[in-house]
Amino acid sequence: xxxxxxxxxxxxxxxxxxxxxxxxxxxxxxxxxxxxxxxxxxxxxxxxxxxxxxxxxxxxxxxxxxxxxxxxxxxxxxxxxxxxxxxxxxxxxxxxxxxxxxxxxxxxxxxxxxxxxxxxxxxxxxxxxxxxxxxxxxxxxxxxxxxxxxxxxxxxxxxxx
Length: 161
Description:
The protein contains two helices and no strands. The chain is an all-alpha fold.
């Protein structure tokens, strides 16, 4: 024991130890709050007389942080709005491009059908021309053969008649 502790009685020493222990326990109250509240609120247990001033003190203490949060919310809201508008215009551009591509595809399909029909018509014409050419060649050859036969008949008829 220290010399100054001898002067305190055991009861006083106990009271001083308890006070020392209570001071070392961290407080759950903010500045301006107290555990001695005469009228507690039924659902929270907080003192009604201290609730509003405590809330005002807390808001005042955290006002700068709340302003920063509000600025962040506004900035994100503005960014989201700009992003939504930008995406909306991009979607509109893509839809327009899709319509243009669909129109071009429809035109190309129609043009391909027309070209296919033209190709079939030309093929039929070529086949008909080939048939006529073959027929003309056949007639020409047949005429040549007939002329040759007629000439041979004419020559032989000179000799034999």
